[in-house]
Amino acid sequence: MRLIYMLFVFLILINFPVYSQEFAQETLSFREYLGYVKKYHPLVSRANLEIDKAEAVLMQARGGFDPKIEIDFDNKQFRGTEYYSILNSSFNIPTWYGIEIKAAFDDNEGIFLNPQNSVPNEGITSLGISVPLAQGLFINQRMADLRNAKLQIQFSESQQQLLSLEVLYNSSIAYFSWLRNFNEVEMYKEYLSYAQERYKGVQKLIEQGDKPAIDSIEIGISVKNRQLNLENAVLKLFKSRLELANYLWINGTPVEPAETLKPERNLTSNIEEILSTRDLYDTQDIISGHPKLRMLETKIDMLNVERKLKANFLLPKIDLGYNFLSGPSYFDSFRPDDYKFGINFSFPVFLRQERGALNLAKFKVQETNFELQQERLQIKNKIDSQIGEKASFRKQTGLINNLVKDYQRMLEAEERLFSFGESSIFILNTRESNLITAKIEQFALENSFLVSNADLFRIMALTN
Predict the structure, then answer these.
(1) Residue 316 placed within a domain
(2) Which of 28, 34, 444, 29 is nearest to 236 (CA)?
(3) Domain span at residue 292?
(4) 191, 207, 362, 454: which one has the fewest Cβ atoms less than 10 Å from its Cβ?
(5) Contact 302, 155 (CB under 8 A)
(6) Which residues, listed in sequence order, are joined to residue 339 by a DSSP beta bridge?
C-alpha cells in the first residue's frame, strides 16, 4: 500500500506544472528579463518556425526539378493467348530553362498489338530532348515556384523578426507595470509606517493632555487611508506579477517569480541603452532596413515573378521534341535515320484570358508599391512623433522630480512645526497627501517614459 501511495504521488508531481525557482533571487534586471524572453518564450520559438516552414516550401519547389522514373506496364492474357504486353519505361531529367531530357525503353509484343507500338523483339531504347521554343522557355510554373520559395525565406525572416519584436514589446510593458506597482507598494508601506508612528506619538500627547482627543480620530483616519491604499496597491502588484509570469520561461517550463523578487528600480537611467533608443538623429538607415518594409519589398519581388509568368502566357506554345531510337545495344546499332520527331503548337486567338491575368498581376504590383510608399512615410512620421513624445516625457519627469522634492521639503518643515506645537494634524496630513499624489504622478510619468521607449523600439523594429 505504501508503494502504491508513493507511486500515486510521483505521478501527480510529474504531471503537475513545475515552476522553476530561477527567479527567486533578490532582483531581476530588465536586461536579464529580456534575455530570458528572447531565449525561452514559446511565441519567440514559434516565430522561428516561420523560417523553417519557408525552407520546407523551398525544398518542395526544388522537387519540381527532381529526375523522375516512370514505368507503365499493361498486359492482357485470354484463353492462353497473349493479346498484348506493353512495357514503357522512362527516366526524365527536368532542367532550369524548361528543357527536359528523357531516356526510355519500350518492350511491346502480342497478337493484337497496335501496329504503332510494334518494336523489335529485343525492345527499343530512345534518348531525346524536349524544348519549349516560346512559352515556358525562360520562365514556367516550376521556375516561378522555386524563385518565390527563395523569396519566401526572406519574407519569413522579416516576419519572424516582427513576431519576436511583438513578444518583446508586450513583455516589456508587463515589466514596466510590475515596476510601477512595486514602487507604489513600497511607497505606501513607508507612509503607512510614518502614519502609525505618528498615531502612537499623538496618543501619548493626548494622554499627557498636550493634544485634544479628536486628534486621535483624525490621525486614525490617516492610518486607515494608508492601509486601504496599500491593500489596493498590493492587489495591483499581485496581478502585474502574474502578467509578468506569462513571459518567464526556462527550457519549456513556465517560471513563477517569487513574491520577494524586486524589479530594477533605476531603470529610467539606462532604458535607452538597453533598447538602443538613445541619440537617434539619422534614422534613414534604420527605416530602410525595417522588416515591415523588407516584407513589402519581398512581396513586390514575388508579384513581379508572377507578372513575368503571366506575360509568358502571351507567347505561343511551341514544344519541339526529338528522340534518337536504337536497340538495347545503343552504340552498336547507331543509325542517324532512326528517330522520332514531333512539334506541338497552340495559340489563343484573342488572348483575353491571358491579357486579363497579366493586367491583374500588374495592378497587384502597383498596389503593393503604393502600400510600400505609404508604409515608409507612416514609419518615418511615427518615429519622429515617438522621439518627440519621449523627449517630452523626459522633461515632464524632470519637472515632477523637482516637484516631489519641493513637497518633501514642505512636509519636513511641517513636521518640525508640528513637533513644536505650531501646526496641526490636518495640515500635516494635507502636506503628506500632496506628496503622495506627486509621487504617484512621478511613477506614472516614469512608466510613460519607459513605455515611450518601448514604443519607439517596436516602431523602429530595433534589434539588440
Answers:
(1) no
(2) 444
(3) 2-40+142-308+354-460
(4) 207
(5) yes
(6) 324
Task: Count CB-CB contacts under 10 A for residue 212.
Answer: 13
Contact 248, 254 (CB under 8 A): yes
Helix, coil or strand: residue 13: helix
CA angle centred on 196, ends 195 and 199, rounded to 5°: 85
Residue showing cell 511551341: 318
How many domains does the chain fold into? 2
Do 276 and 391 lie in one domain? The reply is: yes
Q: For residue 84, what is the enclosing H or E element?
A: strand 81-94
- Could you report the per-residue pLDDT of 383-436, keeping only the tens digit for each? 989 989 999 999 999 999 999 999 999 999 988 888 777 878 888 888 999 999
DSSP one-letter code for 18? P
Q: Could you tell me if 75 and 183 lie in one domain?
A: no
Are 339 and 413 within one domain?
Answer: no
Helix (H) or strand (E) holding 73: strand 68-78
Cα–Cα separations (whole angstroms), residue 77 to 9, 89, 112, 113, 118: 70, 21, 11, 12, 18
For the ranges 17-31, 94-108, 136-150, the lowest mean pLDDT is seen at 17-31
Element (H, E) at 383: helix 352-419
Pick the closest to residue 289 from 54, 156, 462 (CA basis): 462
pLDDT number for residue 16 = 39
Residue count of the chain: 464
Q: Which DSSP symbol is given to 257?
A: P
First to last CA, the chain: 57
Task: Give CA torsion, residues 187, 188, 190, 195, to 10 deg.
Answer: 140
Query: Does a structural domain hold residue 47?
Result: no
Is position 396 within any domain? yes
Task: Give the burial class of 50: count Cβ atoms within 10 A of its Cβ; 0-12 exposed, 13-18 middle, 19 or more buried.
Answer: buried
Query: In whole angstroms, what separates CA 256 from the centre of its chain?
Result: 24
Report d(CA 244, CA 180) in Å as an integer: 13
Question: Any idea what the Cα angle at residue 457 is, between residues 292 and 43, rounded to 5°?
Answer: 70
CATH of the domain at 31: 1.20.1600.10
Which residue's C-alpha cell is 490636518? 426
Is residue 315 situated within a structural domain? no
